[in-house]
Amino acid sequence: MAKYTSKINKIRSFALSLIFIGFVVMYGGIYFRNHPLIMTIFMILGLFFIIASTIVYFWIGMLSTKAIQVVCPNCNKPTKMLGRVDMCMYCREPLTLDPELEGKEFDEKYNRKK
Ligand SMILES: [Zn+2]
Question: What is one cellular component GO term in this UniProt entry (predicted)?
Fold first, then answer.
């Protein structure tokens, strides 16, 4: 069975990995300092990853404002949810706004529009 994490957390870790990739790529460019053209390509590529990450972080900010703040029934902490179903950021309790889906097994496909 696949493991689910809160969507915001998932996007945040994706943004973090983009920064990491960006730095690794830029660091890789140092090995090509005798080939300025290759080094430049590495630097631009690395910079591209970091810019992409900034955009993703900006997107998280946008999503966060759209997210609905709810109090988790399981751990009583305020958490944010996106879409019809999401997961608590703290205890991974599945949350839903749709009474029809209550009690059903957590499934991200409920978020897809028909
Ligand atoms: Zn919780």
Answer: plasma membrane
